[in-house]
Amino acid sequence: MQAGKSLAAAIAVALGGVAMAAAVSDRIADGTSAAAPMQAAVSASNTGRAPAAVAAAGDEAPVPFALTLHGEIAGLAAGAPATATVSIGGRSYPATVQGNAYTAAFTALSGDEMVVVEVASTRARYRSALGSAARLAAAAGGDAEVTLAERASLRVSPFSSALAFMVNKALGGRDAGSDAEFENITRSIVGQHLATAAYMLNGWTSGAFPLPQGYTDGQQALEAPAAVYNQAIMQANSAPAMAYLYDNADNVALTGLTQLPEAMAMLGPVPLNEASVAVSDMQVLYRQSNGVDYALFEEEPLVNHPRYSAALTAQGAVALTPVGAAGSRNALRAVPVAGGGSVQVTVQRVSRGHELRRLVVGDVYSLWMSRSLWFDSHHSATADFEQEFSAYSWWSAFDLKAVAAAHPWSQLLSDPLVSPTYFLPAPCNSNRRAAHLPAFGKCEHREYYFGQAGTGYVFAPSTVNDSMGLDLPNSARSFTPDLAGGALRIMQAPVNGQPLPSATFWRYEEGDALRRPVIYLSSTSGGYMAGASMALMPEHDVSFSKPAGSWRGPSSQGRLAWHPLPTSTFEIRRLASGVQRDVTVFDNGGEPFTPGRWYPTVVRGVSDYQYTAKFGSNLPRPVADCASAFATGASECAPSRVRHFRALQRVGTRLYGVVDFYSNAALKPAGYSGAYEVKYMDSRADYIECVSGECLTEVAGTP
Questions:
Q1: Cβ neighbour number for residue 663 with a 10 Å cutoff
Q2: Contact at 8 Å (CB) between 551 and 572?
Q3: Which of 91, 108, 148, 379 has the highest CB neighbour number within 10 Å of its CB?
């Protein structure tokens, strides 16, 4: 993972050298014809960047300096006494506590020393990682007094304790050694896990939840073995944890909408140990040309331009109010029916607005939460249903254009002697969407060839046809790449006068020579979406001739900052006989699986098929294949899902490539050879890593 400190420096260089033009077309950014200018600099107030460390320059020894902290303690049992201690560089300084406030004076020997404050009280041991002494000194200004208004981490609470704990656990039981390390680790935190930890700490301390037998405070219970912690969570019902966190986490209030960058990317957790192949959830908040409204692009394609009017709440949060039908969409969900039970129907989901709160400010990456208010309705003879509900999300957010300026596409595409090829996501219009979805959305990743003098060709991808077989088309279209502000914008040539989707890609991590993580926005007439993927450069001599064996992917191999650890691992097992199983390997020894068949493809890939059959009046169920199902009495059967993986690169036992998923719900009788109801499910950059079996013999040096 790119270190936050070096990235902050790269951003400063990138933004200080040039003024950048708008990187996203008005179709995406605003739906108007006037391009919004891009900010040419990122201010310290926007990023939270501290000035230079308080230390002597050059080879001189650091100069000690003193600071006084004025903080707050939250979430203690009513009337419970408390003590507070500040720790820095192995030294401890007692604080004076009065009510829920504390004051502590300490001396830092170097600006790089990290500062922690700890509070002990009835059933509680809270911590807050305050950051480096230099960061605190920067917040203090010239008076050497740091207040809560200047540094939100001076609030010691269940939230600060859960945050410090998650970072410590991700680092193997130690605290972060620098502001940059702390900031980068927070990008990998699973928000639901942190929320649950904070929620449980608050409940244990207040007495709302009983401590596990033999435990004396919440921190001890949080550090308990997973079985003890999980049992406590189930007994407490942690469903409201995200709502609790949103209401009780630190709040770094905005004082004006100008503190928001022009384009703010908000990502779910990214892996600790490698560049991001894909991200579980993401959004992009994009300022519109009038300077007041914002578009909130989501991974889910939207028919209406997602334009919202923005305002600050009294607490300094960003309130987004939909303009027209912004954010509205159809969704599938189970709704109750008269007489009991439920039925799955298409509901109309209307956005009633979003609220964004900034929790922690970093040099490059900040922590935010969002609360979204939705209204679902369905009225038919089948069901009559209405419900308003809130949904919460945890984000690592950053100035997308500033980060992209530090990782410009021009570095990869401006060499006159090189014509690189990258596989990139290519949203499109298609009749292969589920009935409740818009025609615009994810399609296969496609191969883009970047030629000389601004020319380019995009090649049609391999795809599963209506007979559930693999097609290998041999066609290409021209496109025009445009480089501006570090971004890459791709406009394809129209076909029969019909406009094709345009897409803009930003590199948000360095990655390596063959793998470049990207965020993209794409739009067409009546469709808008955002996404995160990886630009993959193919190796033309990649070897993939032995798919048999056990394989794992990012969901199993990618390490996040979570607590407790997952209790299961997903594994794809391909037997030499052609049998394929999607297996969930549980820690307790259980290994349930969904059966299927696998087939090698001519494009250095493998297709995994799953099947569904109907026996008599029973509901359809998974089967190993249709031939054996018909032989044992099935009346109907068909492939229900295809997962097609195309290998592009090999790194030891790991293969990087693109994976496409297709589904079919139509069951057919024996002997059927016509078309099925094939639908797109997903397309993403991915990897599979061989962990055992014949596939290991294809790796050089492996017996």
A1: 19
A2: yes
A3: 108
- Cα–Cα distance measured from residue 656 to residue 659, given in angstroms and rounded to the nearest whole number: 10
> Which SS3 state, helix, strand or coil, does residue 458 take?
strand
Q: What is the DSSP letter of 694?
A: G
Q: 574 pLDDT exceeds 80?
A: yes
Bridge partners of 283? 266, 298
Tokens of 184: 């980068």
| Burial (CB count within 10 angstroms: exposed 0-12, middle 13-18, buried 19+), residue 375 | middle
Q: Tell me which residue of 122, 130, 118 sits closest to 76, measured CA to CA.
A: 122
For 498, the token pair is 């019909």
Provide the pLDDT confidence category of residue 153 given band limits of 50, 70 and 90: very high
- Mean pLDDT of all residues in 291-298: 95
- Tokens 């890593």 belong to 689
Q: What is the CA radius of gyration of the chain?
A: 27
- In this structure, the dihedral spanned by the alpha carbons of residues 45, 48, 53 and 57, taken in order and rounded to 10 degrees, is -50
Global pTM? 0.91
Question: Does residue 427 sit in helix, strand or coil?
Answer: coil
User: Cα separation of 605 and 545, whole Å?
Assistant: 8
The three-state DSSP-derived secondary structure of 4-67 is HHHHHHHHHHHHHHCCCCCCCCHHHHCCCCCCCCCCCCCCHHHHCCCCCCCCCCCCCCCCCEEE
pLDDT at position 44: 33
Buried b (16+ CB within 10 A) or exposed e, 302-331: bbbbbbbbbeeeeeebbebebbeebbbbee
664 close to 480: Cβ distance less than 8 angstroms: no
Long-range contacts at 4-9 (CB < 8 A, ≥ 24 apart): 4/179, 4/180, 4/181, 4/183, 4/184, 4/362, 4/363, 4/364, 4/365, 5/178, 5/179, 5/180, 5/363, 6/180, 7/364, 7/403, 7/406, 8/47, 8/49, 8/180, 8/363, 8/364
Residue 5 corresponds to which amino acid? Answer: K
Predicted pLDDT of residue 9: 63
Model confidence pLDDT, tens digit, residues 19-57: 333 333 333 433 333 333 333 333 333 333 333 344 444
